[in-house]
Amino acid sequence: MHDLLMTKQWLERARKDMLSAEHLLTNLRPLPAEVVCYLSSQAAEKSLKAVLAYHTFRIPKTHNFIEIIKNLALVTDVIFIEEKIADTMTIYALNTRYVDDSRDFTEDDARFAVKQSAKIMEQVEKYFSSIKATK
């Protein structure tokens, strides 16, 4: 049994976060790079959690991408994100939340975050397309 409603909800939230990150990156100056990094990481995280939701796997309440990867390995052998990128996305998810933990995020960080998030979301989209093709 698959949870299609929950999957769609996670994907919709991921799309909204990504649209927001892209809009800020393109249109807002001075650029709030830490916000773009955060929203991008959220888009990627929610996309990955959509895969877990599809498989009715308990969604972990974590922003740690390594933990999410470990959970994904329990439901699929597809690799959506490399560990090195996962570490960086975790930094974007966590170190942008608190002033005392943050560093100065740059436009390069923001562009990288958006690019990596887009790649992850594309991988997730391909995953769901391949499932539809086999049914």
Query: How many strand segments?
Result: 0
Helix/sheet category: mainly alpha
**N- and C-termini, Cα separation:** 13 Å
Average of pLDDT: 91
Spans of at least 5 consecutive residues whose pLDDT stays below 50 are none
Instruction: List the helices and strands in order.
Output: HHHHH
Please report which band the strand proportion falls in: under 5%, 5-15%, 15-25%, 25-35%, 35-45% or over 45%.
under 5%
Main attributes of the structure:
single chain; 135 residues; mainly alpha; 5 helices; 0% strand; globular
Provide a concise account of the structure shown.
The chain has 135 residues and is an all-alpha fold.
Question: What layout of secondary structure does this protein have?
Answer:
Layout: H1 4-27, H2 33-54, H3 65-72, H4 83-94, H5 107-134
Helix pairs in contact: 1-2, 1-5, 2-3, 2-4, 2-5
What does this structure look like?
This protein has 135 residues and is mainly α. Helix content is 70%, strand content 0%. It is built from five helices and no strands. The chain has helices spanning 4-27, 33-54, 65-72, 83-94, 107-134. α1 (4-27) packs antiparallel against α2 and α2 packs parallel to α3. The radius of gyration is 15 Å and the shape is globular. The two termini are 13 Å apart. The relative contact order is 0.17.
